[in-house]
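Hi Y.,

Following your request, here is the sequence exactly as I used it, all 68 residues.
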Amino acid sequence: MWRKDVYRRPSNIFFAGGYPHMINEYKKFQEVEEFFQECVDVAMGSVPKMENIKEQCIAMKNEIINWH
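Below is the corresponding structure, written out as C-alpha cells. Let me know if you'd prefer a different format.
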C-alpha cells in the first residue's frame, strides 16, 4: 500500500521487469531487501520499534551463522 507520509529511497523505484535475465539469487536478495526496507519504513520515528528491528536482525544473523 502506498503511503505519502512514508519516505522511500530512490532505490525503491526499481522495475525488475526491465531485467529479465536477472539471476534467481539476486531476485531473492531484492525481495528480502524490499521487505526489510518496508519494516524499517513502518518503524521510522519510533526508537523502540527500530531497536526491536535491530535486535531481531542480530538474533536472525546469529541463527543463520549457526545454521547447519
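Residues 18 and 64 are 32 Å apart (CA to CA).

Thanks again,
Q.
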